[in-house]
Amino acid sequence: MEDSETGWIKTTCAYCGVGCGVEARPLSSGKLDIRGDKSHPANYGKLCTKGIALGETVVTEGRLLSPTLRSGSSEEEVDWKTATDLVAKKFSGTIEQFGPESVAFYVSGQLLTEDYYVANKLMKGFIGASNIDSNSRLCMASAVAGHKRAFGADIVPVCYEDIECSDMVVIVGSNLAWCHPVLFQRLRAAKQSNPKLKVVVVDPRKTDTNEIADTHLTINSGSDVVLFNGLFCYLFDSKVINSEFVDNHTQGLEEALLAARQDVQLSTITGLQSQEIQSFFYDFAQTEKVVTIYSQGVNQSIQGTDKVNSIINCHLATGKIGKEGCGPFSVTGQPNAMGGREVGALANMLTAHMEFDNEQHKKVVSEYWDTDNLSNGPGLKAVDMFQAINDGKIKAIWIMATNPAVSLPSNDMVIEALKKCPFVVVSDCIKQTDTTQLADVLLPAQGWSEKSGTVTNSERRMSRQRRLLPSPGMAKPDWWIVSKVAQKMGFLDAFDYLHEGEIFQEYVGLTTIDQDQSPRAFNLSGLVSMDEVQYAKMTPQQWPVAKYQFEATQNRFFADNQFFTPTKKAQFVAVRHCKQIVETNTDFPLELNTGRARDQWHTMTRTGLSASLAGHTPEPFVLVHPSTAKHNNLTSNSLAEVSSCRGSIIARVTLTNTISKNQVFMPIHWSDTNTNAGKPCELIDSNIDPISGQPEFKSTPVTIKAKDYNTIAIVVCRNKLVGLQASYWCLQKVKSGYLYRIASNQTSERLVAQLTLLVERTTNSRMRSFEKQKRNECVRINVLDRRCDSLITVKQETTHFAQAEIDSIVELCERQTAFEQEGELFSYLEPQIEV
Ligand SMILES: Nc1nc2c(c(=O)[nH]1)N[C@H]1C(S)=C(S)[C@@H](COP(=O)(O)OP(=O)(O)OC[C@H]3O[C@@H](n4cnc5c(=O)[nH]c(N)nc54)[C@H](O)[C@@H]3O)O[C@H]1N2
Ligand SMILES: Nc1nc2c(c(=O)[nH]1)N[C@H]1C(S)=C(S)[C@@H](COP(=O)(O)OP(=O)(O)OC[C@H]3O[C@@H](n4cnc5c(=O)[nH]c(N)nc54)[C@H](O)[C@@H]3O)O[C@H]1N2
Ligand code: SF4
Ligand SMILES: [Mo]
């Protein structure tokens, strides 16, 4: 929707599941002006750092511009016809020879609903298998499974507004301040205006989310079920159960209580003092309006689903659900994790909240899609899917909008599997990622600002992402690419879409079929009569949509006490705490916790392009408690090797009291594309929750030791260095190009020579001869138009560069003013060099 006078176009942020409304205005430079959309009910005009920087990341640098066939080190750019012919032929051929289970799609919450819908329809409806799974398996699967067990459907009952109306917000395993910043801002504002509002954070480490916390329960990793089972028993014993609600609208209380009672030794297992536990229990019991927000500290666990239900049990017991200011609230990670769940693009779902174990559902979907080849049951979930590729059972895979070579556990196996797999197709916007390296066919997809479609946020609100800029090269929308291949596989009529709006219309229709016979929560009947123009102008709609919502609604589920189980009652689930599959031991005495940094998004393919975002955490780091550091001879800012039984990676040590002595924390963002050994998933085994299939990412036994080098270097260059080899390197985007931090065991002379050669090759110019030797330091500058074009500083030292030194190097390379004499360039660096 564009305001034709001012040029502002309404769209939705590319990143997290808060789903903020954005207004964007294309500039003549090709960049975008960005501001928050004041009318969007998710954010009312607010944006976080990542949202504000969206305009900086719409660059063409590094984009995948044309379909590309790869074989060994050779690459051939081809047209769309050749590429889609080939993909269709290979998939059809594989299916013919080995059956429909021999192919798979691995898709993503980064896709739009329309893309997601088409991919799911092709696999389940026409290929006739269910080997389609999404990176949401790594993200939301436990929440989905927990919702289904308790409510009979995958429903997030609350609205964002409930956070603001509540008197107590419990934040479990969520770094809301960094990962859902605008929601965090809303909570902070609510707390300021309602001093009664109590915030409790349940997290083994202290994060920025603690800024607004009244209480921090530094729970032992993996012990949330014990805490919430304890609360459940307390609620019962202190007679604050809502009997009217429990008796009439729930079932399974006794069994759940019996199980909860067996989880004893609360303090020992959670590591919390009984006094803090009791006061948390008391507050939860005595506060009428409680919202419990939970995220990956809950979901990404071998008992993620049980953690979810242990939380929901407490809300059901007290009837703190379906009312203003109340409810369990699973915040979604990705921009469209929720959309993927709606279309059913996870291996164990059919589509549109319909299920494989329901014959009527299968019948209506077959009829609606006009297919006689609908898949009959669930397929392989992400971790099993990659195992099946490794075992040779899956022989062709199509990866769309996700980077499994970085983000899946047992990373070495995943990479090996993709190397072995006879046919690997990757659709991405970016040319160089760890996963695109492993593709036989690369397909260029339109990215945020070019593509057009719908995403659903954490409060079930569907918003439009709109096209703002032309797409570079031959990039196409994901739905178009999938449809073309589907047509060429012989399914012409079912995939002859001309426009994403047609797909959306078909999808809306699907959500309404058979609702009379078996009512489903997910219903968009209010959008059935929408035409293309209305779709183009669609304002945010929160499902269920019975009537087009001209005004933003605040639809809360379960206000009518009706659930989606066969009895229409909510289900208590009996859950018990279980230990980690692999516990810390003498070889691996520490627990590795992994998660996110404030200003980076996942594998950095987009946020990594922004110099301003890179400044917050420029390098892969490991958070270590000072006493753990002392015990392991680690000093602040030194490099350390973190090892598990699977392998070793390297990161910069950050000393902090925010983490416990038995844990270390690493961010997930670095990959082989921007550092040489910084991917935590190399250390993490594929231990999954048996119900949801979601991997444990928060607890891996590791050990840590200092990693010393003889020589360290900083290189700034306008282009990326090709063929850099060093014991440690890491790359950071800066305004003038790229900054490399390097550590090596070579002598400084050799390292200088090697780096000089690389920079000269990369920039196609010569480093000037005015090399300046200091006591233990060598600086070389490449001068262009009397400006510093690139710069190498090497030190014969084992420690790190001080941030001030790095800042002055970066500043020198960014300077637009020419230096009168080249010597001035050096004197500019002098104060820092003279340490
Ligand atoms: N900046 C930024 N924001 C993002 C993303 C990003 O990449 N960058 N990604 C988005 C996505 S897809 C997702 S899924 C979300 C994730 O959002 P979050 O879940 O908030 O983020 P994480 O950092 O993965 O983990 C959250 C917290 O769980 C804690 N934790 C670990 N183990 C346990 C445990 O056993 N119990 C409890 N109670 N807590 C534990 C960790 O210490 C950590 O602070 O963020 C979204 N937002
Ligand atoms: N150790 C550890 N591992 C984790 C986690 C953790 O906490 N700890 N968290 C897990 C979670 S919750 C998540 S969500 C995953 C995220 O992990 P990934 O999904 O692997 O990470 P992304 O970087 O988001 O990958 C998205 C890819 O899609 C591309 N892309 C972006 N937009 C489009 C588009 O429109 N079309 C196409 N075709 N491509 C596009 C991007 O360039 C990028 O290469 O990581 C998981 N892995
Ligand atoms: S909170 Fe999430 S959706 Fe909102 S601007 Fe930030 S990253 Fe984008
Ligand atoms: Mo996620």
TrEMBL record:
KW Iron (keyword) present: yes
Cofactor or coenzyme needed: Mo-bis(molybdopterin guanine dinucleotide); [4Fe-4S] cluster
Pfam families the record matches: Molybdop_Fe4S4, Molybdopterin, Molydop_binding
Keyword Oxidoreductase applies: yes
This enzyme's EC code(s): 1.7.-.-
Alphabetical keyword list: 4Fe-4S, Iron, Iron-sulfur, Metal-binding, Molybdenum, Nitrate assimilation, Oxidoreductase
Transmembrane segments: none
Residue ranges of every copy of the 4Fe-4S Mo/W bis-MGD-type domain listed in the record: 6-62
Highest taxon of the lineage: Bacteria
Secretion signal, residue range per the UniProt entry: none
GO molecular function: oxidoreductase activity
Family matches, as InterPro entries: Asp_de-COase-like_dom_sf, CT_Nitrate-R-NapA-like, MoPterin_dinucl-bd_dom, Mopterin_OxRdtase, Mopterin_OxRdtase_4Fe-4S_dom, Prok_molybdopt-oxidoreductase
UniProt record similarity statement: Belongs to the prokaryotic molybdopterin-containing oxidoreductase family. NasA/NapA/NarB subfamily.
Listed name of the protein: Nitrate reductase
Species classification: Bacteria, Pseudomonadati, Pseudomonadota, Gammaproteobacteria, Vibrionales
Gene this chain is encoded by: nasA
